[in-house]
Amino acid sequence: MGRCAKLKGAHARKGRRRRRRRRRRRRRRRRRRRRRRRRRRRRRRRRRRRRRRRRRRRRRRRRRRRRRRRRRRRKRRRRRRRRRRMDPPTDWLGRPDLQHHHH
Questions:
Q1: Nearest 5°: phi and psi at 58?
Q2: How many CB atoms lie within 10 A of CB 6?
Q3: What is the pLDDT of residues 46-102, one digit of tens each?
Q4: Rounded Cα–Cα distance for residues 99 and 37 (Å)
Q5: The whole model's pTM is what?
C-alpha cells in the first residue's frame, strides 16, 4: 500500500490537519451606578444632666494554663523467633541433606 492510499475514503480527514479556533474577546460593559442622595432629618435631642459616679474597677487577669499532651512512646518488643528443633533434613539414604542445609 502506498502512502496515498491512506488519504482515500474514511482516512482522508484523519491527517495532521488542525483546525484553528478563533477566540472571541468579550468586552465587558461597565455599569454606572447612580447614587441616590438621602435627605437626613435632624432630630432634636434633649440633654439630661447625669451625675457620674466613679467606680474603681479591679481587673482580674486570668491565666490560661496550657496543657501539654505527652506522647507516650511504646517500646517495641522484639519477638525472638523460637526455632523448633527438628531432625535435620536427610537424604533418602539417611545422609544429611546439604542442599537444604543453611549453616
A1: -95, 130
A2: 13
A3: 777 777 777 777 777 777 777 888 887 777 777 777 766 777 778 888 888 877 666
A4: 103
A5: 0.16
